[in-house]
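Methods — Computational structure assignment.
A single polypeptide chain was analysed. Its primary sequence is given first, followed by the predicted tertiary structure written as structure tokens.
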Amino acid sequence: MRRAALLGVLVFAASAWGVPTTVDLATAPGNTAAPLVYMGQLSTSLAREVTAANSTQVFLENASVTLASALSLSGGGSVAAGTTVSSYIVHLDPVGTPQSVYEGHGTITFDQPVLGLIYATKDTGTYSLLTASDASVGLGAAFYDVDPEFRRLEIPQATWQDVASFAGNVVTVDLFTTSGIDDVRIITEAPLPLVPVPGAVMLLGLGTGLVGWLRRQRVF
């Protein structure tokens, strides 16, 4: 038992790898919470019949993609060709056609800086930003086989206007939907290669020696 606990501490100290942190906020009276849930690697189609859920799902799409051409972002600007990025998608698609408005609010914190967001709005000219990035930083058009009109954010909107923004390595979303889908793609810097630092290697070596000493003590 002592050996297992010791090894767990050493592994944690030698290398740490974070995942997005989600925080669900309160919803307005009369509406239904769709809490933020990190789902890990996207491995199935985002078709409605496959991924409908009464939660706001956050998927990792690609951990390391080198852009062949500049990637246009919502709100203007782009990520330069040759940049290596990671991509995530925030996906809110309630089950069926509920009468209540489903709300997904919260923040998503990443290990790496956020470079930008990509989403469609009521302006049909923005659909191409999202669908083009499906192929370049997503998993291909087949994974997103839903009419782009249903994947848009309600912007502008008098009430229940969707909002997606970022600062540093934190993305904030306020999403509202009933029968539609809200999709927001997040582009971050790619994670750096995990190279053990000398202190971590030394710590791991000392721990291995200590485990061997404990084993010999038990034998004798």
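Note: Residues 61 and 207 are 36 Å apart (CA to CA).
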